[in-house]
Amino acid sequence: MFRKLSMSAVPAVVLVAAAAATLTPASASGSASASASAPASTSASASASASAGSAPLSHPRIAAHFDLAKGQTPENVALAPGGTAYVTFAQGRQIAEVSPSGRTRILATLPLPADGGIHTPALSFPLTSGIVRADDGTLYFLYATGTADLTGVWRLRPGGEPRRIAALPANGLPNGLALDPRTRTLYVTDSVLGTVWSVPTTGGTPRAWSTAPELAPAGFLGANGLKIHNGAVWATNLDRGTVVRIPILRDGRAGSVRTEAAGLPGIDDFAFTGHGDQLLAALNGSSEVALVQPDGSHSIVLDPADGLQNPTSIALRGDKVYVLSAAYLTAQDPNLILARLND
């Protein structure tokens, strides 16, 4: 997610693309500019010119294309056991189901705020963001509108209608979402307020679980991606290019924050590989995926040649890696890329 511009008459996708340029690292600006100015057909041939990834990833391919004109900019993803992906379309205000064959079906469209979403902090358009799936198929997701009646945590049960179960501050931007099934607790990053909230899956009043300085923005957006891993909350900070770890203490409170990795500009969502604290991180502005080692070092394992178009989120099931790209900057081909994680 990117910086708000003061031109409300310009389509949201243009605002986001223009603002994304401010997050593109200098080392990647050449490739990003080329991608943004290339004809639309470039993205369709991305798989043919792919770099085939870098170890331990291999065989990247575009499994699904989304419709930019309909606001189908994928922001986050949750996986079901059979390989179905549940996706939030940030600008479309939608929850979608993407089948293993790449077919997209819209499950729900959230209500448009009365003001059109122009007061949504940092972005000026209503945003559907983080999503998780419980074992019974219930989807929990986030919606930010800048209005008190809609901003918060929402729930969608199989075959049901979306319903807000917890209100979050209208002056914040709920972004990342994680579920601790052991305690039935949802954790939410707020990228504007620099806060991790906790909410029971039954809904109710959120609690400011952590407001550590490491979560705060440094000019635009702070705490972003979020995961529960080995008894701790892990979060990224987009502005600071960091990954932090916050232990969950026995009484449920937040422990002391530790920065586990740095030097990752434009970091959005991430996923653990199953090898200890090793993780894969989406670097939005540079259209890359980084493999981050437990010691904090990292290497690039996917890039624009593999079809990446400003990746926003990553998920893993077995040896299959799902990478969602929103094309905020390239404005070409929002897509889903699948790759193989090799041992």
What does this structure look like?
The structure is a single chain. 6% of the residues lie in helices and 41% in strands. It is mainly beta and 343 residues long. The strands form six sheets. Strands 1-24-23-22 form a four-stranded antiparallel β-sheet, with no helix packed on it. The protein has a four-stranded antiparallel β-sheet with strand order 2-3-4-5, with no helix packed on it. The model is unreliable at 2-50 (pLDDT under 50).
Total beta strand runs: 24
Strand count, sense and barrel status of the largest sheet are: 4 strands, antiparallel
How are the strands ordered across the major sheet? 1-24-23-22
Separation of the first and last Cα atoms: 32 Å
Low-confidence stretches: 2-50
Name the structural class.
mainly beta
What is the CA-based Rg, rounded? 18 Å
Order of helices and strands: HHHEEEEEEEEEEEEEEEEEEEEEEEE
The portion of residues forming beta strands comes to 35-45%
Shape: globular
Helix content: under 10%
- The number of helical elements comes to 3
Mean pLDDT: 88
Short description:
With 343 residues, the protein is mainly β. It has helices at residues 12-20, 29-37, 41-44, and strands spanning 57-65, 74-79, 85-89, 94-98, 104-109, 127-133, 139-144, 152-156, 163-167, 174-180, 185-190, 195-200, 207-210, 223-229, 232-237, 242-247, 258-261, 267-272, 279-283, 288-292, 298-302, 311-317, 320-325, 335-341.
